[in-house]
Amino acid sequence: MSIDTETARRVAKLARIKVEEADLPALAQDFNRILGFVEQLNEVDIEGVEPMTSVTPMRLKRRADEVTDGDQQNKVLSNAPDAREGFFAVPKVVE
């Protein structure tokens, strides 16, 4: 697949990128180089290769999902400039 200047103009418009008319041929060449690289990647044999989430195979450390420091409402609200009925009080912003 080859990208011409008209296609480059259309892609720039869709991406909402202002490209000067004189720069369109260079942009089309850049797109063609990118597509060439993608075609090279398609030639790689990936048969039997499992997908990875990281370059180093390791599992994330997991911990039990349990509350460890709960029931600190009074301590948290002690720093609030204004607290009412167990909640932060803020100025009204909607009429």
TrEMBL record:
GO biological process, one term: glutaminyl-tRNAGln biosynthesis via transamidation
GO molecular function, one term: glutaminyl-tRNA synthase (glutamine-hydrolyzing) activity
Name by which UniProt lists this protein: Aspartyl/glutamyl-tRNA(Asn/Gln) amidotransferase subunit C
Catalytic activity entry: L-glutamyl-tRNA(Gln) + L-glutamine + ATP + H2O = L-glutaminyl-tRNA(Gln) + L-glutamate + ADP + phosphate + H(+); L-aspartyl-tRNA(Asn) + L-glutamine + ATP + H2O = L-asparaginyl-tRNA(Asn) + L-glutamate + ADP + phosphate + 2 H(+)
EC number: 6.3.5.-
Subunit: Heterotrimer of A, B and C subunits.
InterPro entries tied to this protein: Asp/Glu-ADT_sf_sub_c, GatC
The organism's place on the tree of life at top rank: Bacteria
Matches recorded under HAMAP family: GatC (MF_00122)
Gene coding for it: gatC
Family membership noted in the UniProt record: Belongs to the GatC family.
